[in-house]
Amino acid sequence: MKKSRGRTGRKRRRKHLQSFMGGVSCSHKLEYIKLKKWLKDRGFEDSNLRPAEFWDTGRGLMTTKALQAGDLIISLPEKCLLTTGTVLSSCLGEYIMKWKPPVSPLIALCTFLIAEKHAGEKSLWKPYLDVLPKTYTCPVCLEHDIVSLLPEPLRKKAQEQRTTVQELYMSSKAFFSSLQPLFAENTGTIFNYSALEWAWCTINTRTIYMKHSQRECFSLEPDVYALVPYLDLLNHSPNVQVKAAFNEQTRSYEIRTNSQCKKYEEVFICYGPHDNQRLVLEYGFVVMDNPHSTVYVSSDILLKYFPPLDKQRNTKLSILKDHDFLENLTFGWDGPSWRLLTALKLLSLGADEFTCWRRTLLGDVISARNEQQTLNITAKICHFLIQETQHVLLQISQLKRNKENLKKHLALVEALRLEDLKILQKSAEILCNLNMAKT
């Protein structure tokens, strides 16, 4: 009797430890049981990773043993990967091979995903398709009202992303129609815009980079995609380092960690040193306290604080443009970037100082007046961006009350804007200290 109580106590402690680490195991869920069996049939040996739900990152993978730097996190056999090779060996292969002009590797993969999803129970890839997200939060999926709340540079890229997917759909319609012999239903209803949008987001957010040799049946766009079941449950963290590559000897895609990870903790990989705007654009999420995050300053905002009557204004702008100083002007956790300050120093040059513009671009101090004016204008721009960000956050909180169906998308933009606000407030503090040091 005592013995069993002790075991229950241990169980309870273990349960407490697992939830204490911020994750609740999902291994018992039917879709994951089926996925693991499907992977095992394809040669995947069970690793120390378990699907779990984490309070801060959502769905991810937890480790059941402590990991040391150099440990193999996961090894996924080639048979488990979904590539253009998979597509060509399916019933779509002959249609792709004879279609002219050739389709892109991306469209081939999108077509396969849509066709397999439509096949339902009959699909060999059903266990994988069942764990893929049903919806995405990439900008291409956001409503116009939500996109308008994004910071200006990201807003522009979001609109470009939407145009890309719309053009992809329009240019692929004839190819989709050619697949009619494979389907009882009309291909127009199967391969509709929302199906392509879902497939495109699946590939854009979940594929790993894997170079394949060029095939004549595809267009000249690089064939560099592979979907990796189970492995794609690993979430991103900017604070970890991993080594990921296809191992030619084992014919498996392997990831090794360069960081330590405690038992029952979430295992992370790093998608690259991306700022939050890039993470939202490519993957549809935000990382809090992201060390790579920055707030971009557009050239319109830059010019707001300079006298329009400055006779050298247009020449100064031409110099900045020619030397690529009108793009990537930012505020970061350590204050205004060198590029932003340099651009503002050049715009602040007095008529008597203008001949020194080359020295300004090299980072030389021209005069105390120029330095002071640059700091003042930088602070003004920072405060303007703080006010603008606070105004958007107010709009978001009002929309959250009225638009229940958009809560998930609004939460994404809110997280991005809150990070921006933290960076701008930190920058304002740094500028204030710099000003005090000069006076």
TrEMBL record:
Its main location: cytoplasm. It is found in: Cytoplasm, Cytosol; Nucleus. Coiled coil: none annotated. GO terms for biological process: inflammatory response; methylation. Keywords: Cytoplasm, Inflammatory response, Methyltransferase, Nucleus, S-adenosyl-L-methionine, Transferase. Its EC number is 2.1.1.364. It comes from the Eukaryota. Pfam families: Rubis-subs-bind (PF09273), SET (PF00856). Gene3D superfamilies: Rubisco LSMT, substrate-binding domain, set domain protein methyltransferase, domain 1. Residues 42-272 form the SET domain. The keyword Methyltransferase applies. It catalyses: N(6)-methyl-L-lysyl(20)-[histone H4] + S-adenosyl-L-methionine = N(6),N(6)-dimethyl-L-lysyl(20)-[histone H4] + S-adenosyl-L-homocysteine + H(+); L-lysyl(4)-[histone H3] + S-adenosyl-L-methionine = N(6)-methyl-L-lysyl(4)-[histone H3] + S-adenosyl-L-homocysteine + H(+); L-lysyl(20)-[histone H4] + S-adenosyl-L-methionine = N(6)-methyl-L-lysyl(20)-[histone H4] + S-adenosyl-L-homocysteine + H(+); N(6)-methyl-L-lysyl(4)-[histone H3] + S-adenosyl-L-methionine = N(6),N(6)-dimethyl-L-lysyl(4)-[histone H3] + S-adenosyl-L-homocysteine + H(+). It is an enzyme of class 2 (transferase). GO terms for molecular function: histone H3K4 monomethyltransferase activity. GO terms for cellular component: cytosol; nucleus. Forms a ternary complex with TBK1 and ZNF268; the interaction with TBK1 is ZNF268-dependent and leads to TBK1 monomethylation. Belongs to the class V-like SAM-binding methyltransferase superfamily. SETD4 family. This is SET domain-containing protein 4. It comes from Circaetus pectoralis (black-chested snake-eagle). The gene is Setd4.
